[in-house]
Design brief:
This protein is mainly beta. It folds into two domains: 2-141, Immunoglobulin-like (Sandwich); 146-223, Lipocalin. It has one helix at 2-12, and strands at 25-27, 34-41, 51-53, 56-60, 64-72, 78-79, 86-90, 96-101, 104-109, 122-129, 132-141, 146-152, 157-165, 168-171, 177-181, 184-189, 192-200, 203-210, 216-223. Strand 16 and strand 17 form a beta hairpin. The chain starts with a helix and ends with a strand. Residues 1-23 have low confidence and may be disordered.
Amino acid sequence: MTMRTTTFALLSALALAAATGCGSGDDGPGGGTTLALRMEPAQQGVDSSCAQAGSSCECPNGAYARLTLVAHASDGSEVAVDPGAVQWSSSDSASVEVIADGAAADVGGLRDWFDANGSEPSATITASYQGKQASMPVTVVINASGDWQARLDNGFSYLLSLQQSGRAVTDTGTGYGGSIAGNALTLTVSGINVNATFSSRTQVNGTYASSSGGLHGTLTCTKQ
């Protein structure tokens, strides 16, 4: 925890803001202004595979995003926020960590489905400013990024190199993809549909079937 916090404090000083709208707002300080949280990529060198999901965000376990508190006047123009007056909190700091940095904060998943008795951990991140608040729900998803060796029951073996963005996963070798929900993984690679479950963070078991229906069976994927 100390090492992670120290690393983010260092990286935050070098951060470049690349805004993408993700968040929810509330009435802001005075004069009809509004507050909102804006999600930006995590700092360089940190897993930043969190992604926007409507007005909330989804983070693979171990991934981080940067949230910035923004205030807008009634005419839509952005107004300055006093960094020293912003307070950050997580409704479940054991599941979603928040590392405050003035008007911004780094948030990341600390636990996933395997730690939470068969459910996806989530927390609400809140920024309080001058008596008002803006918040954003964050859900932690199993992190499947990396190389996986897929072995089919017919003896065929295939290497999957997965990249992840929120729930979405993509095989970099083919460009095909799928998604994660709870401990379930769906994936379509080169015309083969995979429906599987994570038995651990490093093993997936399930079935496969070709789109044409001619090829089907069981498979096991092991993280390398």
